[in-house]
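RETRY 2/3 - previous attempt timed out on the joint model. Re-submitting the same 1010-residue input unchanged.
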Amino acid sequence: MRFPSISRRAALRGAAATSLLAAPSILRAQPASVKLGILQPVTGALAQDGELGRLGAQLAIEAINAAGGIKSLGGAKIEMVFADARSNPEAATQEVERLQAEGVAAIVGGFASPICLAASQAAARYNLPYIVDVGVADSIVDRGLANTFRFAPGFGMFTSVAISNLAKLNEAAGKPIKTVVLVHEDGLFGAGLAKLMNTELPKIGLQVLETISHPTPARDMANVALRIRALNPDLVIPSSYYNEFVLLARTMQQQRIRPKGIYAVLNGAASNYRFVKEFPEAAANVMDCNHWYHPTNPLALAVKKQVEAAGKVMAYNVPLNYSCVGLAADAIEHAASVDRAKIITALGASTFAGHIMPYNATKFVGGQNQGAAPVNLQVQGSDIKVIFPAGFADAKPVFPVPA
Amino acid sequence: MNKPTLAPVAVLLVVLAVVPAFAANTTINFLVSALIVTLAAQGWNLLGGFCGPFSFGHAAFFGTGAYVTAVLQSRYGVNAWAGFAAGIAAGAVVGGAIGWLSFRAGLRGSYFALITLAFAEVFRIVANAVPLTGGATGLLLKLDVRPANFQFASRAAFAWIALGCVVAVLALSIAIARSRLGAQFAAVRENEDAARALGIDVLATKLRAICLSGAVTAAAGGLYAQYFLYLDANIAYGSWISVEALLAVIVGGIGTPAGPLFGALALHALGEATKLFAGAITGIDLVLFGLILVGAIAFAPAGIAGSLHSLSARWRR
Amino acid sequence: MYTPSIIAEAVVNGLLTGAVYALVALGLTLVYGVLHIINFAHGALLTCAMFAVWALSDGLGLNVYLTIPPLAVLFLCLGYGLQRWVIGPASHGDDGNTLLVTLGLSIAIENGLLAAFHADTRTLSGDAAFDVVELGPMLLSRPRLIGFGVAVLVAVLLWALLAGTDAGKAIRAVAKEKMGASLAGIDVRHIYALTFGLGCACLAVAAGLLMPTFYVNPRVGNAFVLVAFTIVVLGGMGSVPGALLGGLLIGVVESLGGLFLGESLGQAGIFVLFILVLLLRPAGLFGARA
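RETRY 2/3 succeeded.
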């Protein structure tokens, strides 16, 4: 029973932090604090991710305030106004209304695409700046909402990078991979990804033997494993959420299915330290194309230490939210105002460099950060290493995986 | 429904009509959500409360209303109001189809409840898979604020429309309760065999009830789509709305025309109130919600309308 | 396109999974058959049992199968208490109210677990989950084989209990004719609570059998409840052998459906089967015609 005590402690610390943050606004000498809405699903199906997102946002706010707050506003502190999206778009919309009523300068978060879609649209009614932390659906930025910005890469970017990196990887290893089986969850991201993969993989000379979809939550992966065994592909490309991927990887290990590689895309588990720690054998050498923190950025490593000290894992939600809050603060700094139109202008012109992601220079076009890019990761030993692109990599790929 | 319970309803409706003019958007938002659930619950009540069959799957109607409203607009360029009307009609049709299949097979009680649940689940899985509904990506209605487009700059306008729907169905419910149809519903609810012996066509009566019920709940779905402008299979056909519709009716007072309104408002108010007590630990508010629900049923088993009724009866005595 | 050995393995996998489904459904069908209520808290209680197994096994280091007997007794008492002092009195014998009370309980339990354990998904650590038994060309998971054996054993024991003991006879009497049983001197409230307790004990056993290969989080029970409902209907509401056979059948249907139709459509298949059974044979495949 390690987790509950730690989380209780974390909650207490969170409460202490918010009371500390609230204190300065009472003192007349201090400039009024800037309210920042943090929207995450901390109850319901996505609660696990929402908690990590909240942690990232909280650490960023603490760091910004410790460094003197928003200097162009006389050192105003950032005050977190937290909103629980309850894992559904309706609750998220309602919480946006509440955040609006509380007078936040901007909203950061959302996590899941449906939540981001609904919440950013609700915020658009008030011209309230909305920064998407994770939501990968491309429709989030394709709608032309002026208030919505996405710092991280979207779906289209993910697939093209994932596929071109896979082609390079295969090329460099002497083309050991010829056949592929796709396993995906039947929701938004898995199904969309599988469709794109089916059209793109043949173009790089890979044959898709079969596309296997499964529901979330899935109770059993034995059949998926059986089918993979029957097809005997060189490569398995899974895109599922954490629990299902863990079930699949464990079942594959049990059934002694050892393809030349497991190449996950946007997978909740393959780039999660918990998975690596709890099931080192099943996780060994799994590759993933995903969001990740900059592995050689000292600030990123410092944040990772803080996260681990809190008994949590440095999943991608943490650095993304950390960076998005930084982006919001930077925009407010440049706007020198909490005026929404000015913040939106500042976001549109942002060249924010204080983030902890392995991205090129920040540049928003139509709300999408063009500098963003996913990276390729691989579980090596007990660690997760960045193996692609070379500029950010801290390890060489192990590919094909030795039998 | 007699005079003593009508008075509080009238007062409540007047308050609800006045509030949006002054209230903050968060309050209106709360109100609109509660009114949408009220409408869905009124639909449930027309079938379950008036005529008898308990449904666990009103999501099937809610989702159909929502999807038809949304799909017609976003894919076929149909006007939003026309789409809304089509959604209501589609709800009636789906109601009729489910009713025809299951009532003809003689399903009653838990069997009927379970088959409605299964229909809603099948709809959910299909809506999650087919391209027409946007699959798992969901369906986003374009933000285009024009009254002709069923989108309003002021939230109050929407609250009044939702309230208008609720009042219309309330009036319809009262009218039905006093009509020959209402008497037939009641006869079928109390004892099907006896009703049949009295010469009532039980199947036809139940079908009327489920068509009406489906149409009203579909209207709630259409309103939902227009208000939140986003739909996916889990919202439209998810079990949450089946549960809320039934919960509101039973909490408010089953079979009473005003029960759904009392129930939905009370449940939503309770949900908000427990959020205030929640503090830092996630989940505590819903624990309170669940426990208060159990407590409320333990001490007021007839629902709010029923309790009001017996209270006023005792008072006059 | 699949070799016979793969199909055979899928069938066996389906049977192994189905037995544990059956155990979850057993509790539900028992409560339905006797109390005539649909227990909405069933999934939440299963989640609760799974957390209990996890806490004892991962926290205190007990062997997972050794947690089953004490937890079964604990859940028997818990279920008895819940029905006797909470659900029974709070619902005043009205079906609609019972529904709401169990719904309220499930909301409270699920979120209580969320508050206590957070939303994190937990699995049992250790390698026991990976043990396999080689049977010809098949690699069968040892924990699942154990699960199958225990689930069938529990179903048989329960059936024997209902058929052979005084308490069982009283339960069957109450299920058939509540009023008559009451007139014959049977304490109906006691029997109701006992039945509910037995249903919960089944869940505790199922939890112990599931945990070695599955995960737990505060919402996990929901994944099993709809399937359990399907099994209850398939087997005939209130029938113990029906639930066992129904569970095995659903396990195989799900497994083969998943193999040939894909996992997602396979799920829709279960519900379509469910609707067809309700429409064509509402007493269940194995039940007597009502």
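Strands of chain C lie at 122-123, 132-135, 138-141, 215-216. Closing ticket.
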